[in-house]
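Late entry, written up from scratch paper. The run itself happened at the end of the previous shift, but nothing got recorded in the book at the time, so transcribing now.
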Amino acid sequence: MSVIDLNNFTIADAKEALHGKKMSARELVGMYTSQIKKENKKLNAYLEVFEDAEDQAKETDERMARGDEPRALEGIPFAIKDNMLIEGKRTSAASKILEPYVASYDAHVIQKLRDAGAVFLGRTNMDEFAMGSSTENSAFGPTKNPYDTSRVPGGSSGGSAVAVASGMALAGLGSDTGGSIRQPASFCGVVGLKPTYGAVSRSGLIAMASSLDQIGPLAQCVDDTRAVFEVIRGEDKKDATTVSYAEKRPAQKLVIGIPKEYGLEDDIMDADVKDAWMQARKTLEQEGYETKEVTLPYTSYALPLYYIIMPAEVSSNLARFDGIRYGLSHNGKDLLEVYEKSRSRGFGDEARRRILLGTYILSAGYYDAYYAKAQKVRARFIKDFERVFKEVDALLTPTVPSPAFPFGEKLGDPVKMYASDIFTVSANLAGIPALSVPFGKGERDGVSLPLGVQLMAPWFHESTLFDAGRILEKYRE
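Output as recorded:
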């Protein structure tokens, strides 16, 4: 068989090769494990590579040799973000406080992938407890962008994005709380989907902010992203927020909205990012889509809303990591000292910052002034989207304001780092699906870096995103 370009190899290609007996599952998995050995030391995408990946592939080969019906993702090698439980494997959420923890059960999405025949290559690096936009906040060192190792890959799902972008996995899973799938997808030149809130179970996902978190796929192309989504979506009795998924499609010719508040009239993004956004608009128009400018007045509140609601939920969710029940534990003269030592030594700077901020927001004197008020504004924010989706079928925006930035550029300025999420947090606050598709390149310091555009659609209209995304990716360069 001829040499395969792993950066352009898709799930459909792998299925054709496997089902046509042009290669075995062990050969397929071997290509990726070889690439991991070659690239991971430089990029630090994987925290652990699973030794039993070849055994998983062997089971696939035995099934196919028996003539069993191929499953949806039979033999497909996956990278899994280190905040999803895989039974018998360590799951640390890239934090020292959970470093020794071994999962006792599979997350719902992991079980679904298992049932579909997927092979798990390993667990990938991330910002600690998914808190960050650069994967610089991992307790186990930063992941590096494969296009330029002096630049960040985005976060918090940077490890999974890099694994896919560098040919170290055919597909990956990430989690998205405010852009943590879409932003690294844009920085690394891959496709990333944040599904509708409730479309995919969060059971077995280590929670960051429960009303915002959502698991989704990262892949080389839109069709691969859709193939993974169709496997992992659906109701789960262990997650009361999930629903029985019914795909929705608009009946008429699609109309794409261009929100003015996303920088159409202001300079809140780099010039080449804005050029790519406008070129994406023209591309959709050339393909028969109608576009129109729309307004979302409450968008200006997106970042303040997110950075009130998110840390409040973080402080509540991370209270369980106390040095008593599981994970890291330091001895102390009394229970309070055990808590203090375990949490202060186990959590990194960004996690501590958000826990402190969230505790303050939820305190008796400030709950009504901040958290309760934010939830009221969030309700208005959602109505903004309900109104605009009566006018258009989807929205087109940039994914992030710039291409990948250098390490350290924003680490010392949390507000500047948080601004990286300006275009992505809205989808999480409203619970709508959003897709980042590679589109265009931007040159920085003599290096050509990927850019991405984002599509957002009404609740449970992922199919609309896939249809439009498929058109855009034809013109991705």
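The CA atoms of residues 362 and 368 lie 8 Å apart.
(Scratch paper discarded after transcription.)
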